[in-house]
């Protein structure tokens, strides 16, 4: 919580929760959702589960979205899903450039940038993921590397408001490993990313962009990680699957 922006707790389910399980989870979430929340919540479900999630959460205070989106609008792109169709389901967000997409599907910063544009053009807020591998951090180059990723991905991307962009810093060595960045690491990267955004888009716009931390975030570390300057919430994988731990994280952020 930077003190400036309302935090966002974004739940990245990955390849988990098909339609039936996702619907049941969303229903129970609404039943147990506390009235006073100090953070926004977004469920990032598998494509095929989005209609089920939408049938429960549309019009509720809980936002939802996808974990990827096509850079293309339509055509011969087997397996792809267009941003316009996600908007049809009233998705608010889409994750773009997650390290697992980069690692297993060869996605580049340039592709991520094109996907960000497709999301923006269809009224979705992109959650652009960046972050370094362990050797890069050990070489002391984490900030330089991550800012270069941002620069390449955002090369042709306009940002005008909080809805244009969310950036998630996810050091790859911290994802699913139980090894978390320290609050100092998260803050250092948050400050550096804000600095980059200020240079690129001007102070007033940069101040509206939410900067998340992701990588082994859990109920017992989320408050410390998000208490620092320029860490405006978290992108959570493993700990987002259980409703109990999601509600604990929401309470800890509030
Ligand atoms: P994790 O995943 O919380 O399981 O480390 C985070 C992510 O990959 O978004």
Largest sheet: 8 strands, parallel, barrel
Order of helices and strands: EHEHEHEHHEHHEHHEHEH
Specify Rg, calculated over alpha carbons.
Answer: 17 Å
User: Going across the major beta sheet, what is the strand order?
Assistant: 1-2-3-4-5-6-7-8
Helix percent reads 40-55%
Cα end-to-end separation? 9 Å
Bound molecules: 2-phosphoglycolic acid
Overall SS class:
alpha/beta
Alpha plus pi helix count: 11
Q: Judging from the principal axes of the Cα atoms, what is the shape? A: globular
Mean pLDDT: 96
The number of E-state strands comes to: 8
Unreliable spans are none
Strand fraction band?
5-15%
Question: Can you lay out the helices and strands and say which pair or pack?
Answer:
Layout (H helix, E strand, L loop, with lengths): L7 E5 L6 H14 L7 E5 L5 H8 L5 E4 L16 H6 L4 E4 L2 H7 L3 H13 L3 E6 L3 H5 L3 H12 L12 E4 L13 H19 L1 H4 L3 E5 L7 H5 L6 E4 L6 H11 L1
Parallel strand pairs: 1-2, 1-8, 2-3, 3-4, 4-5, 5-6, 6-7, 7-8
Bound molecules: 2-phosphoglycolic acid.
